[in-house]
Every structure is written in structure tokens, then in C-alpha cells.
Request: fold
Amino acid sequence: MREDICTIPVSDAFETREGCPICRMYNMLEERALNYIMGAAMMEPDVRIETNHLGFCHNHLSNMQKRKGSLQLALMLESHFNEIEEKAFSTKQKDNKKISPFLKSCFVCEKVEWGMAHMVETVYLTFEKDKDFRELFLSQPTFCLKHYERLMQGAPKSGLKKYKSEFLTGLSNIVSKTLEEIKGDLKHYCSMFDYRNSGPDKDWGNSKTAIERAVTFLGEK
Ligand SMILES: [Zn+2]
Ligand SMILES: [Zn+2]
Reply:
């Protein structure tokens, strides 16, 4: 895929300041990749070679099914089926291991991951170089647990140098604050089921959305 399809200004995802900015980056990239493949790209021979080989995961195929372009989708699936039949399908049991790579790969997931790797690297580099971005990063309300892990794991081999410890400490502080908040709200939520709190004036506080926030925090993407 052309580089511009997978490159979005990192600041776009951070300026919203709502929920995890890396999830937002993922969603932007995923939307772009899906629009790209359901658009004219689907009929391009070089793209078709890739889709024949990689196929799509169930999640992305379901998404594509809901979009316009059923003829292109059918044409692409038809040639993907041809490739499966030609390269992997066999009536002999021992040959069927060639099917498993087809089940594990996805054209959209691969493009999104390519874009994510570049954007995450840009996050580190911009944090290192740009004071305004450091402030923007450190003022995020939260990061989901999955992307917290990704940012922490990638930091040692990234472009972070002078500001590495500020990055790691700042990120950990943001995430630990969210963890504590949700934990407290989950506890409060559970306590509301206690008969002693059953009066008409019972105060749910922020706890009504605790489960929803816990699920989002654990990361969907
Ligand atoms: Zn996230
Ligand atoms: Zn996928």
C-alpha cells in the first residue's frame, strides 16, 4: 500500500483528548485501509496479488460485507479462492498444513499494523523533539492497557533518548490513575448491590459506566 494511505498526522489522534489516542490511531488506519481496499484499489493487479495471498480475517470481512461494493468483494474472494485451491487445498491430509497460513493472515490487519508501527515510532520521535507534543502527550486522559504495553515495550529500542524517562514515568502515571479510578468505580458499583445501599437516594456516582470503561480500558484492538 502507498505510504500516504497509512500515514496520518499523529497529532490528529492526540488532540481529541478523549479515551486512548493510540486506539484512535488504530481506528483511523483501519478505516483508511478498509476504504482503500473497498475502493478502486481492489481491482488493481498488484493489490489483487496481495489479497489473493493474504485474504482477510473474519472481523474485517464482516466489516467489508456491510460496505458498498459487493461485486468487487465477490471478484476478490473468487480469485482468493482460486489461490487457496491451487496452492493449499488437497484431499491428502498431509498436504493440508498449507492452509493454515491462509487462515492466519489478513490484508487489512497487515496494512494497519504497518501504519501503526510507523505512527508509534513517530510518537516516540516527536516526544523526544517537540515540547508542545510532550505536553499534549502528558495531558492525555488515558491509554488503554494494550497500547500502554505496546508503548512501554517499544520505548527501549525507539528514538527516545533524553526524554525517555519522562515518557515512561508520564505514561505510567496516566495509566495507573485510570486503573485506580476504574477499580474504585467497580468497587462502588458492586457495593450498590448491597441491601444497605438500596434506598431511593442511593448514589451511583460515576460507577454506572464502570464496566463499560473497564472493557474499553482492557483494549479492543
Ligand atoms: Zn488503545
Ligand atoms: Zn484483519
Notes: The chain has eleven helices and no strands. The CA atoms of residues 98 and 213 lie 41 Å apart. The mean pLDDT is 90.
